[in-house]
Amino acid sequence: xxxxxxxxxKYNLWGSNTLDWGYKRSGYTDKITDYTGNRLIKVLVxxxxxxxxxxxRQVAKQLVDNGVNPENTLLINREFTDLDFLKSYKxxxxxxxxxxxxxxxxxxxxxxxxxxQIIEGWEKVINSYSQDFSESYELFISGSNxxxxxxxxxxxxxxxxxxxxxxPFSYTExxxxxxxxxxxxxxxxxxxxGGLPELFMLQKPExxxxxxxAIKDTVLLRDIIQRHNVRDPKLLEDIFVFxxxxxxxxxxxxxxxxxxxxxxxxxxxxxxxxxxxYIEDTFxxxxxxxxxxxxxxxxxxxxxxxxxxxxxxxxxxxGYGYGLGYLVxxxxxxxxxxxGFDVYVGTLRTKxxxxxxxxxxxxxxxxxxxxxxxxxTVEREYSSLEAIDDNFEKIVVSLDEITMPLRGGIxxxxxxxxxxx
Length: 421
Prior knowledge:
Layout: H1 3-6, H2 26-33, E1 41-45, H3 52-65, E2 73-77, H4 89-103, E3 109-114, H5 122-130, E4 137-143, H6 151-156, E5 161-165, H7 171-178, H8 184-191, H9 205-228, H10 233-245, H11 253-262, H12 269-281, E6 285-292, E7 297-307, H13 311-316, H14 324-338, E8 342-348, E9 351-359, E10 362-368, H15 375-386, E11 393-398, E12 411-414
Parallel strand pairs: 1-4, 1-5, 2-3, 3-4, 6-8, 10-11, 11-12
Antiparallel strand pairs: 6-7, 8-9, 9-10
């Protein structure tokens, strides 16, 4: 057998191989397999170590379980050192041709390529195989940078791909892994930990801290500093720390520049803006723009940032002051994004609404808080929603044990019930 194809055997479903399937993430695999049976390129994007590799393997297994010949599936994970020879699109094309020559699969071939952005010019091969009408291919690819489908590439693949953003484990998935009951106790445990998959295999806090730190360092170094030839790595990391510790707060780039200058650091608006953009591209942080509810348009200036996983806060920067309400708000944001909503910070004259969530014709206004502990808190959370004079859904989310009664059409939902939204 060709030496390079032989190096793939242990990572594939050929023969009697048994792979590590991980926790079944049917919310993703079912959605992805719904799109199979066509030439659309299935693209998975998301932060490193969020579970994309497992999902690709699970989709391949699901296809095989449904009757696809295992030898008609080809799984390539570019992060494996065995595949360091895969440097350019020419190497990738040669490997696929060698696989076909060695295994001689009959009928459609399903190709899965993980962390494809590492392969230079990869889009040339993907575009070529997806549109090869002399033979039948279906392609599934993943990457850890949001710029994968930007600019020229989006034009090249326009109308021929469907994108799935992969997040760390949700609260529902957390319950499945930990075999716990839904409720306040388990939600607080989830909130004080995080959802990165490999975190659940580590028992000691120090091991978890080292693991999270290693992910952060890898993303900053490999995906940002080396890729963009960053001149001030310390500033990049300090900006990330600032965003983590100010998640759920309205901030502006001007505020961040003033903060660093107040510490005697020399920087500029452009440098901070550029570095934040790099961090966003790796999915470590999400920007949530403001939305004028009355004017129905997004606003420039102040914005909010949310962490892709609370583990960065909980294990790396837990010493910084941070109210539990902000953690709840971050989790609500992530849950809305998982459900496919476009999410904004709502503004209405002098009031702020934590979230305006939009998906197709559905709009939901949400307020989130740790506890509706007193009348002043209740009035603050409900009054912002009551000021909105349209008939879309209005919800207050909290960690109260008791559900509040309906008030003027505004529902109260306990945070652990949000997955049923």
